[in-house]
């Protein structure tokens, strides 16, 4: 039996694209979340930090929901084996995402600084943990985990914490941190911008070292070099180095470099995984191929039509959101805010939080 | 307890909790968009304040609905991997469509709506409010299509012991799904209406009104509650007839009819032995012939009983118990109907008082409207408990039993960890969200801006 059909390959690519979208977009959300107290020293500055991702974080997280749903629809066996297998790891990710998700709603509604500090720490923890665990998880998917003949995972949470996977976790953690710091240096002004840039110039080289180490290890693990994977790894390496070099001087270029580095980093893993959905470390014969994991041809066809119709539209309006909220955010705009009345036009010192209010 | 029993508890707890926020979000999103439309049309400051005040309350529910929705999508794979493998060819498709067609719209346009005050033109901003309202309803449609397939599987054929999708149109336009959708949207409007009434009544009774927001909101919410509660009985009636045809056991269990009866009475209060299926009642107070009349249209119509259906199913599906826990279906069904009846009475009475121009003088009405906010939640939660527990022992009716749907690789200890973890986390979130909700609700709409142009997004966001 062939390992995959054309339609299955298309869906592997589509699901990969959804994950890439998720990591590029929520990658900087995670970085921004981790840095809220490091770059924001007072409530006005921290409000500006929250504000830099406030309008978009929820839309960014939907990429994950859709990646999960698409995996369920296109490769149910993959979804079942992966989600029941990585059970406690996913539980930790869920708890983290829940906690960080409510921060945006509750942070400003308590009135005391202790209340805000608690939610800031929740945001830091809730951003750090998934940033680490997504790397651990994907390194395990590619590196192989104990799976038996019935496609059931036979390990525990600790099976997932082997050195290669932990390095993968550190790679995504540092990469997202640098990505978020560069994003903040692009989206803010004043002291917040300066601190973000200072952190970016240190985080980006660190990310480069860890990412390159992990990519080399990934290629070394392959039996015979997989050329597509090696090309992606080379590209990712070039881009993390570029990001490290540009982080302090050219934030726009550096941000482009980290976006590209995240894409190629995960492409290295996806091309390594293909044409499998899960790799069994117990016995190579137990690995789940795309064909074995897949839905019927009819279901894949239906979903292809839906995806072709909707994905371009999604990209259009999500792109438009970023355009609407393109302005930089300064803490000064928030300093004088005591109550919503302060924000009204003509009420004096309080100005719009942005430099240039568009439209 | 086995990992399967624990997984069932977890699904029950997390799903019911999620559904506290779903109807509030859908209903309030529509109500807020309506208020904003009134403001857009009339330029009246009352409706601007109303939009922003109710919008803030909606956002709390939205945030909790979004984060708890994540768990919903993940736990099919985590706790129910054999279910996921079995239904994957069909069940995943509406879930993925929900994400692509509804969640992206909802999350993106919610961000635009929250932060777009003064940045977008009034017209575009209003369109964002309606995009949010429409997409929350659309997401309900897809998830109900998926759930309805579990209640009444259609559009498939069996291949290698698993259902294979043959018609996506049959799944999406399943008549069960259409009824469930109308029923759910009405429930959402009813919930939002009751919430608006409760908060408005609280302010009117204390005289903290002044901006005209609460009187105006109440005058809109009362007809909504009256009409939607009434419509629920109409839709529920037809839904009941459909269910009698598709899942006769569930309806027999709802009314605790054990032996097939012509001219069955509608039971008002019954007790039986303390068993999952007592196979008969000890005491029963009923209205003669009423059940047959509402279910079949004839006073002497035949209602199939639990014991007879059980015999039929044993012949068709093999030995076993095919009745759900009768006491659960019987009482949840009554709690749901009773709550709806009370909401109708409250709405109609209030509407009549408004009509007479004596609403503000109705101290007792204003007082009782506040605790009455529990009613729509009782109705939704008992309604879902009835629907899901009433389908047991099946997870997919006639195709897969719940006992065969769990995750073999997940141990009971692991499910304990996640069950306790989610329950504690959800409990803490409920306490925090409840506190913030009450604080904002009590604060009133005075601060919602005196100028016509609100100009800033932060007021609503942080």
Biggest sheet features of chain B: 2 strands, antiparallel
- What is the SS-derived class of chain A? mainly alpha
Number of domains of chain B: 2
Q: Helical residue percent of chain B?
A: over 70%
Count every helix of chain B, treating DSSP H or I runs of 4 or more residues as helices. 15
Radius of gyration of chain B: 23 Å
H/E element order of chain B: HHHHEEHHHHEEEHEHHHHEEHH
Widest beta sheet: strand line-up of chain B: 1-2
Give the overall shape of chain B. globular
**Secondary-structure element order of chain A, as H and E?**
HHHHHHHHHHEEHHH
On the 0-100 scale, what is the average pLDDT of chain A? 89
Provide the gyration radius of chain A in Å: 21 Å
Chain pair with largest interface: A-B, 83 and 86 residues
What is the CA–CA distance across the termini of chain A? 57 Å
The protein's oligomeric status is: heterodimer
Q: What proportion of the residues of chain A form beta strands (DSSP E)?
A: under 5%
Runs of chain A with pLDDT <50, length 5+? 335-359
Main pleated-sheet profile of chain A:
2 strands, antiparallel
Strands side by side in the biggest sheet of chain A: 1-2
Q: What fraction of the residues of chain B are assigned to beta strands by DSSP?
A: 5-15%
């Amino acid at each position: 039996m062939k390992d995959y059909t054309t339609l299955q390959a298309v869906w592997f690519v589509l699901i990969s694209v959804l994950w890439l979208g998720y990591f590029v977009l929520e990658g900087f959300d995670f970085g921004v979340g981790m840095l809220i107290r490091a770059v924001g020293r007072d409530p006005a500055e921290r409000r500006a930090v929250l504000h830099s991702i406030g309008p978009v974080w929820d839309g960014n997280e939907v990429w994950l929901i859709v990646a999960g749903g698409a995996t369920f629809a296109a490769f149910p066996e993959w979804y079942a084996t992966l989600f029941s297998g990585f059970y406690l790891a996913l539980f930790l990710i869920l708890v983290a995402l829940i906690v960080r998700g409510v921060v945006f709603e509750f942070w400003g509604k308590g009135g005391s600084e202790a209340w805000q500090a608690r939610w800031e720490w929740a945001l830091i923890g809730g951003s750090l943990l998934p940033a680490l665990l997504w790397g651990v998880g994907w390194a395990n998917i590619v590196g192989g985990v104990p799976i038996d003949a019935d496609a059931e995972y036979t390990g525990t949470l600790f099976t997932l914490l082997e050195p290669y996977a932990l390095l993968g976790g550190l790679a995504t953690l540092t990469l997202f941190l640098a990505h978020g710091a560069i994003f903040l240096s692009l989206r803010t002004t004043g002291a917040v911008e300066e601190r973000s840039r200072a952190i970016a110039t240190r985080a980006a080289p660190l990310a480069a070292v860890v990412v390159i180490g992990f990519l080399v290890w990934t290629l070394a693990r392959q039996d015979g070099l997989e050329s597509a994977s090696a090309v992606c790894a080379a590209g990712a390496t070039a881009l993390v180095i570029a990001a490290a070099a540009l982080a302090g001087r050219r934030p726009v270029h550096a941000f482009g470099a980290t976006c590209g580095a995240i894409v190629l980093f995960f492409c290295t893993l996806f091309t390594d995984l293909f044409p499998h959905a899960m790799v069994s470390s117990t016995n190579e014969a137990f690995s789940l191929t795309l064909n074995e994991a897949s839905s019927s041809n009819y279901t894949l066809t239906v979903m292809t039509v839906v995806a072709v119709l909707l994905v371009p539209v999604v990209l259009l309006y999500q792109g438009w959101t970023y355009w609407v909220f393109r302005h930089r955010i300064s803490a000064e705009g928030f300093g004088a805010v005591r109550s919503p009345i302060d924000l009204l036009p003509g009420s004096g010192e309080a100005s719009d939080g942005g430099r240039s209010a568009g439209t | 307890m086995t990992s399967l029993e624990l997984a069932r508890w977890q699904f029950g707890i997390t799903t019911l909790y999620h559904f506290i926020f779903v109807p509030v979000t859908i209903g309030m999103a529509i109500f807020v968009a309506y208020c904003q439309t009134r403001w857009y049309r009339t330029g009246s400051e009352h409706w601007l304040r109303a939009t922003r005040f109710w919008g803030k309350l909606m956002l709390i529910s939205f945030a909790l609905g979004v984060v708890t929705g994540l768990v919903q999508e993940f736990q099919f794979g985590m706790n129910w991997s054999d279910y996921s493998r079995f239904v994957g060819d069909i069940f995943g498709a509406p879930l993925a469509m929900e994400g692509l067609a509804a969640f992206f719209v909802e999350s993106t346009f919610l961000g635009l709506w929250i932060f777009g005050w003064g940045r977008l033109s009034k017209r575009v901003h209003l369109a964002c409010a309606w995009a949010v309202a429409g997409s929350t309803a659309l997401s309900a449609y897809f998830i109900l299509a998926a759930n309805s397939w579990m209640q009444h599987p259609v559009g498939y054929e069996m291949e290698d012991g698993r259902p294979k999708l043959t018609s996506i149109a049959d799944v999406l336009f399943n008549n069960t799904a259409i009824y469930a959708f109308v029923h759910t949207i009405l429930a959402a409007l009813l919930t939002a209406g009751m919430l608006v009434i409760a908060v408005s009544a609280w302010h009117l009774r204390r005289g903290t009104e002044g901006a005209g927001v609460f009187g105006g909101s109440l005058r809109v919410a009362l007809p909504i509650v009256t009409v939607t509660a009434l419509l629920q009985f109409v839709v529920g009636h037809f839904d009941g007839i459909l269910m009698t045809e598709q899942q006769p056991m569930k309806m027999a269990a709802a009314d605790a009819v054990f032996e097939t009866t012509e001219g069955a009475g509608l039971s008002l209060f019954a007790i039986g032995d303390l068993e999952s299926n007592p196979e008969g009642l000890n005491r029963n107070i009923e209205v003669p012939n009423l059940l047959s009349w509402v279910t079949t249209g004839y006073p002497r119509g035949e209602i199939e009983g639990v014991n007879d259906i059980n015999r039929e199913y044993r012949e068709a599906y093999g030995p076993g118990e095919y009745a759900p826990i009768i006491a659960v279906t019987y009482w949840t069904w009554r709690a749901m109907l009773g709550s709806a009846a009370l909401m109708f009475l409250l709405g109609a009475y209030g509407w009549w008082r408004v009509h007479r121009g004596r609403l503000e003088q109705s101290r007792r009405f204003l007082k009782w409207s506040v605790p009455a906010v529990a009613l729509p939640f009782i109705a939704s939660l008992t309604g879902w408990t009835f629907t899901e527990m009433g389908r047991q022992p099946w997870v997919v009716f006639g195709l897969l039993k719940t006992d065969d749907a769990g995750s073999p690789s997940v141990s009971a200890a692991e499910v304990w960890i996640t069950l306790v973890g989610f329950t504690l986390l959800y409990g803490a979130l409920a306490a925090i969200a409840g506190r913030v909700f009450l604080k904002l609700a009590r604060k009133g709409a005075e601060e919602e801006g005196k100028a016509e142009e609100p100009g800033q997004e932060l007021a609503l966001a942080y």
